Write a sequence for this structure.
């Protein structure tokens, strides 16, 4: 009897702690604006939102996409997911220092880089409708965030934190088994994707210049994002699966293949001597 009472109390206590934790976390979450801006600005925000959700199919963005992914494939829920590629508060981090470009880059540049790498496509010209609309949507999602430009790297305050584990222990053989258990139904036996999930390797996937092609980035993203709706992998499982996925072939990244003809470039904000 006494034992049961003790158990009940423990459950109550944990229940309260869980609730308090959920509340605290909810407090930290920046609110998503509940209304679009009025007039043409609001229309451009909504266009940007559509492009993020339908990147590979929308007639404006499709010419710049070279695979079967949309921005929302990785920036879950159109970037409103709080953890997995969140766009919340992102605009507040830009302009930011980018070690890769060896330059300070704008949010627009950052968006366009994801076209060349994660979308395995062609960089839309700076100032094009696609580029402005998506940047406007992401900026709108940061409404009310305090500007806090990032002097270290082009990442917002909610970027995926890198797991602190020993990457040399990531085991692709175990990852293969875990992939079959947790991922195969939606992403397919050959990583080619199904009606329920996009490709994760092969010709229709992101290229080897994309963030997710690096095992630590992929594992850290999986930890907060997959399986979809129930991100429940242990850190080791995430590392093993990431090592398995990224062991496969995917398109190669070569900058020249992803830049538009010079007259359509706008200005590519990069120091050419740095790859
Ligand atoms: C294959 C996955 C993938 C796709 C598709 C993708 N991205 Fe990304 N993107 C990433 C990853 C990974 C990062 C780094 C995020 C991190 O480390 O938290 C990133 C970073 C970004 C950032 C910077 C975020 C920050 O915190 O500063 C922006 C902006 C962005 N992407 C925009 C886009 C847009 C717009 C599209 C569609 C045109 C797109 N991405 C498509 C994976 C992807
Ligand atoms: C219930 C189906 C489902 C399961 C199970 C699932 N995913 Fe996904 N996954 C998706 C969908 C759908 C997306 C794209 C999100 C969107 O469009 O909203 C996605 C996106 C991804 C992406 C980024 C986009 C891309 O295709 O490169 C990766 C990587 C990924 N999943 C890996 C995994 C791994 C690894 C597992 C197993 C641990 C897993 N997923 C389990 C449905 C699923």
């Amino acid at each position: 009897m006494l034992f049961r009472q003790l158990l009940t109390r423990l459950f109550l206590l944990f229940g309260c702690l869980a609730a308090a934790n959920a509340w605290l976390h909810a407090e930290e979450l920046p609110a998503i604006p509940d209304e679009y801006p009025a007039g043409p600005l609001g229309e451009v925000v909504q266009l940007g939102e559509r492009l993020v959700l339908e990147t590979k199919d929308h007639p404006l963005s499709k010419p710049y996409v070279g695979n079967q992914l949309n921005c929302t494939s990785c920036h879950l829920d159109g970037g409103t997911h709080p953890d997995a590629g969140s766009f919340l508060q992102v605009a507040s981090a830009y302009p930011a220092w980018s070690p890769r470009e060896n330059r300070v880059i704008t949010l627009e540049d950052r968006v366009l880089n994801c076209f060349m790498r994660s979308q395995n496509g062609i960089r839309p010209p700076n100032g094009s409708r696609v580029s402005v609309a998506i940047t406007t949507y992401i900026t709108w999602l940061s409404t009310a965030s305090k500007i806090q430009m990032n002097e270290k790297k082009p990442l917002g305050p909610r970027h995926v934190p890198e797991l602190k584990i020993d990457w040399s222990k990531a085991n692709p053989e175990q990852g293969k088994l875990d992939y079959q258990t947790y991922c195969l139904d939606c992403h397919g036996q050959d990583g080619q994707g199904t009606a329920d999930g996009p490709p994760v390797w092969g010709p229709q996937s992101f290229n080897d210049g994309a963030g997710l092609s690096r095992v630590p980035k992929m594992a850290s993203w999986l930890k907060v994002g997959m399986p979809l709706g129930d991100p429940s992998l242990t850190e080791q499982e995430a590392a093993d699966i990431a090592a398995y996925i990224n062991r496969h072939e995917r398109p190669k990244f070569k900058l020249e293949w992803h830049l538009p003809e010079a007259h359509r470039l706008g200005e590519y904000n990069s120091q050419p001597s740095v790859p």
